[in-house]
Amino acid sequence: MDIRPSSMTELLSKLEERGLITRTPDESDKRVTNVSITDDGKKAIEDDDSTDDMLDQIFAGLSDDELAQLSELMDKLNTSLKEKLPDHEDDPHWGHRFPHRGFGGGPHGHHGHGMPPFGGPHGDPHGHGPMGFSPKD
Predict the structure, then answer these.
(1) pLDDT tens-place string over residues 9-56
(2) Pick from 3, 77, 103, 134: most CB atoms within 10 A?
(3) Residue 90: CA atoms inside 13 Å, Cβ hemisphere, count?
(4) Are 71 and 135 in contact (CB under 8 A)?
(5) How many separate domains does the chain show?
């Protein structure tokens, strides 16, 4: 993974606060922290996979070109929203949708076949953008 240690620590802290993982020090090597998924974390993954399946069905009637066009239009809309509502970008409700993953940016490498959910104007899995959408890979 190409991620800074401070970013990984922040991400793990957020997951731990939500009860999705636990962190425990390794008994044989104190420099190592073992990360384990909780039952709630497993359920969140299952719920997210169900969301992926539902979205695949919703957008199954669109061609690749139509999906690409819709994606481009959503990018424009999100850019406009970001410019007009910059203070809302850090609002925890802004960009909230189904469990936190858009197509093409999944934590376990899943690339969906439908459109992503459209939350905030982020180019990340919380909304629509370059990392949040991958039309029919």
Answers:
(1) 898 999 999 999 999 999 999 889 999 999 999 998 888 888 888 888
(2) 103
(3) 1
(4) yes
(5) 1
